[in-house]
Amino acid sequence: MIGDCKDRSLAEEGRRRIEWADGQMPVLRRIREDWEKERPLQGLRIAACLHVTTETANLMRTLKAGGAEVALCASNPLSTQDDTAAALNEIYGIPTYAIRGEDSETYYRHIHQALDLEPHITMDDGADLVNTLHGQRASLLSGVIGGTEETTTGVIRLKAMEEKGVLKFPVVAVNDALTKHMFDNRYGTGQSTLDGIMRATNVLIAGSVFVVAGYGWCGRGVASRARGMGARVIVVEPDPLRALEAVMDGYEVTTMEKAAPLGDIFVTVTGNRDVIDAHHFERMKDGALLANSGHFDVEINIKALRSMARERREVRAGVEEFVLPSGKRIRLIAEGRLVNLGAAEGHPAQVMDMSFANQALSARWLWVDRPQLEPRVYKVPDAIDREIARRKLEAMGIEIEQLTPAQQEYLASYDHGT
């Protein structure tokens, strides 16, 4: 028996869904087919703390096909698909430690079980593996050659570690690859966030006032999809350049203080804490819906909401209603955790195809090329980013223009005048 999952009898259902996702992930599939012959990761041990979904399962299959020994644990208690975890353990032979809804004690026990592999490379969604390694499992640090990080929140944490001089190994910020954040964050988060809200509540988006906190790539995607469904979108953003961009994109931009009494639906995508706080709850409409699409459940001050409420109850599966002393009702989706995974299935496989291709090729780069890297946060090499874009276009049957030798020479020169 390997791994720890809820119900191993779900394995066959999980296999069917994993294979369905695989059909939508041609770039990763072609990498896996190549690696089955080449075995570039032979001898490599990888510990991964990622959302345990069908798409992640196909990344794990690809790493294993390349020769790596892999252990997987969940990066969020509500994002695990129990049938996927069962299939990984029972059918694909990949130790997976994940149970949907697991408590904090189980969550961290699973992280330690994944680290028991004594990895050479870590793969993170939120930097929990890295933090645990640097704290409780520091004895393993000498064997780690590098890591990858897939989330904005995780990159923020890692850069803070770098700045303070405490990061002990290099980490590739997969999140910052163009083929990740321009597509996964924008189109994936945009679609899956709306999907989660609608599955949980069945509310009509058209005609609603939809408040998006944060106008990074994820916020852009959420705002775009909400507007496309007929909502009046308000953006809350503290960065002046991003706020100006939101204005130029045609959105109303204001503070959360002013947006609070206007919004019907609120979504946070900032990577920061207490973006929606106690004084905002007091100003909201009766029946306001709150959701978070940031990695950690800190963006909405849930502790304050609980302390303010005179009554709490579940009104739909995954939707909790808080009744304030005034009688006003505030409704929280998926416990304030990632709504796209807590209330839906996460990003479509087509965009995760590129994100996980970045993960796979970055691991290969760290293991095979063995670049001399300091303990810092690094961008995905441009060559990997472009290779993934080329492969994705080929899989879509799209042919792009090719520069002639004369055009290439012109772009590389400095002595051509007018």
Task: Describe the secondary-structure layout.
Blueprint: H1 11-22, H2 26-38, E1 45-50, H3 54-65, E2 69-74, H4 82-90, E3 96-97, H5 104-115, E4 121-124, H6 128-135, E5 146-149, H7 152-163, E6 171-173, H8 178-201, E7 209-213, H9 217-228, E8 232-236, H10 240-248, E9 252-253, H11 256-259, E10 265-268, H12 278-283, E11 288-292, H13 302-308, E12 311-316, E13 319-323, E14 329-333, H14 339-342, H15 349-369, E15 377-379, H16 382-395, H17 405-412
Parallel strand pairs: 1-2, 1-4, 2-3, 4-5, 5-6, 6-15, 7-8, 7-10, 8-9, 10-11, 11-14
Antiparallel strand pairs: 12-13, 13-14
Helix pairs in contact: 1-3, 1-4, 2-3, 2-15, 3-15, 8-9, 8-15, 15-16
Overview of the molecule:
- With 418 residues, the chain is an alpha/beta fold.
- It has two domains: 8-176 and 347-395, Adenosylhomocysteinase-like (Rossmann fold, 3-Layer(aba) Sandwich), CATH 3.40.50.1480; 187-337, NAD(P)-binding Rossmann-like Domain (Rossmann fold), CATH 3.40.50.720.
- It contains 17 helices and 15 strands.
- The strands form two sheets. The chain has an eight-stranded mixed β-sheet, with helices on both faces. It has a seven-stranded parallel β-sheet with strand order 3-2-1-4-5-6-15, with helices on both faces.
- α3 links the parallel β1 (45-50) and β2 (69-74).
- The longest helix has 24 residues, at 178-201.
- The protein is globular.
- The N and C termini lie far apart (72 Å).
- The mean pLDDT is 96.
